[in-house]
Amino acid sequence: MSTTLTPTVAAAAAAPAGKGRWLTHWEPENGEFWATTGRRVARRNLVFSIFAEHLGFSVWTIWSVVVVALPPALFPYSVDQRFWLVALPNLIGALMRIPYTFAVTRFGGRTWTAISALLLLIPLAGLTFAVTAQPPYWVVLACAATAGFGGGNFASSMTNISFFYPERQKGAALGLNAAGGNIGISTMQLFVPVVIAAGLVYGGLMWVPLVLAAAVGAYLFMNNLAVARTPFRAQFATVKRPHTWVMSFLYIGTFGSFLGYSAAFPLVLKLQFPNAPTAHWGAATITLAFTGPLIGSLARPFGGWLSDRIGGARVTAACFTLMALGSYGVVTAAGNGNMGLFLASFWLLFTAAGAGNGSTYRMIPAIFAAKSSDLAVAKRESAATLGIAGAIGALGGFYLPRAISDSYTATGGISTAFTWFGVMYGVCLVVTWWCYLRRRVLISQVPSLAHASV
């Protein structure tokens, strides 16, 4: 059933969704429509989107905690094998993000949110099997890989929410949506150790009722937007835009770092400082690992909010500068065995990466709005770019843990990896300045978007 949404039927628009519910009239840029109808509907969809995405991130990165808790006697894996278990889900999740992005424009945000939530039952079943049957390592690795289903949820959720909000509020809305999802990592790293104290199997089973609740909530209370339906050919036009690939590269530096550090931090902390402070809750041992993703998640909406006010490019440049300093701090702390500096440097990395996630995702709609005079085209291409950049950026979540593992294997430490991470952030800073902040150097020969204050 299709529903035409106008200010005079606001009450009907806010009613619980029925089967096949599509909203065929959606004008968030219209002030009267937004005040009387749009804001309420958008907020309702945002709430249930955050819930589903939160669970997606929790399931996506669950192996970062499970790996640390695997008994060596039952799972005699090397350090490299353990890093593979936390890195491979990130790779699969990155690859899943592109089809998940286009699924929203094909099936609708409400429909796909419900389906993608139910798909999380696959990795939860895989985890349950892996820790109970104790199969060969390659089977455990395959079970861990299915956690990548959770990674796709972010791309579809961000694409969907981008259609609901007006340009002036997109940074804050996308920041809240992303932060609500990102914080699922810290929620998982805080509570799963408590639950698995009763048995590893409960690390997966604890999420099943929540996943079912998310699917039902999306089905009952979310909406599909007709304006989001776009032919695949029109969406793929964005791959021809140079800024799609520039922003994808920058997102490797921000989100790739956040995801990679979130996955690797528990194991890195255990390897570098085995005697790091822990808290005990009954038989459970809780480490400081959850604090990093928590700080980064909370910083993300701030990055989006600040970008709405001073421009995303400025915020992004500042974040890369801070991340380079954080990398230097980790190298110094690892060399001196200074746990305080180590933790502070990682917290700085998480904070800057989180804020940078918000600022880069705010830049994308602003860039396409500045490059196109057709608002509908700009929205369509920016939504597709959010998914593509999200997929490519998430590859950093695979690369970073693997680089840390390779550094540890080759040198016995992590300093080499973080030295190169610092170089990468320097390159990202230069690219940001060249494309979006440069106002004088070779500006007549190679224009930038500094004038648009993206």
Automatic annotation (TrEMBL):
Keyword set includes Membrane: yes
Molecular functions (GO terms): nitrate transmembrane transporter activity
Topology in the lipid bilayer: Multi-pass membrane protein
Record's GO cellular component terms: membrane
SUPFAM superfamilies (UniProt xref): MFS general substrate transporter
Stretches that traverse the bilayer: 46-70, 82-100, 112-131, 137-155, 176-201, 207-228, 249-269, 281-303, 315-335, 341-361, 382-400, 412-436
Primary location class: membrane
UniProt superkingdom: Bacteria
Compartments in which it is found: Membrane
Alphabetical UniProt keywords: Membrane, Transmembrane, Transmembrane helix
CDD domains recorded: MFS_NRT2_like
Family per record: Belongs to the major facilitator superfamily. Nitrate/nitrite porter (TC 2.A.1.8) family.
Protein name: MFS transporter
Source lineage: Bacteria, Bacillati, Actinomycetota, Actinomycetes, Micromonosporales
